[in-house]
Amino acid sequence: MSSWRSAGISYVGYSAVAARCVRRCLKPNDKVDAVNAAKDLMKIRAYKWENGKAPEQPELLTRGNLA
Q: How much is the pTM?
């Protein structure tokens, strides 16, 4: 059995903990680059379905327009 599963957390939770540990071990100038790269990778698309169909272009949510 995987160590993360025996600890009672999901794989997503495990990978978040691992990423946090790696970022903490980085040198200060590399740490800023890693944190900014992680923010750039996080994108959420919201689909507002109408009449049983998804829109052609979903809205890209950012920190500024999250509800």
A: 0.47
